[in-house]
Amino acid sequence: TLAAAFMYMYWWVVPAFLATAFLCVVLLLRISGYFEAWVNEPPHNSLSAGLEATIDTSISLFLAAERSIKIVSGQLRHTFYSDPQVLASLSDATMHRNVRIDIRAGTGYDQDNAPFFAFVRSPDTVSFDVIPYVPERHFMLVDGRHFRLEDSHEPTATNVAARIRFDDPSTGSELSEAFGYIEHHIMLKGRAA
Fold first, then answer.
1. Phi, psi angle pair for 150, to nearest 5°
2. For an engineered disulfide with 70, which of 35, 78, 141, 191 has Cβ 3.0 to 4.6 Å away?
């Protein structure tokens, strides 16, 4: 009977235990992989308001850029556009990843934006134009699929809510069309005036 018990353990219990242990290890590795990807992945759909949230989410967008960043803004506030972290992430995008940056902004901007305007004038990969009419909703569009879209607000508002979304090519396509409209219609009207 001892031999039979040993044979039973050898043929059934040990393989079952090893198979169960193997499956547990595989499951734990998969779960930890999903968790790691979830932790390191930027939020797909979030809401931000306030300067710090705007800076943080914008930097996340700029770091995700591989080809292009398009910005439509009413006012170029120095508290955001001359922030050292914002400028560093934009510089990194242009200098290390050859990202093209196109900025269209209204005539209202802070004169204290010297660091930002020095950045805009330095690389060949940055295009900046003042537009005579700014759309009601301002946005940042990265690679045609990541974006920050502000809610409608007064020109002097400082705490503006915005939707941030990563990997949304459908809305990205709409914002890209809006940017194209600004370039081809609003800017042409401003130059003709």
1. -75, 150
2. 141
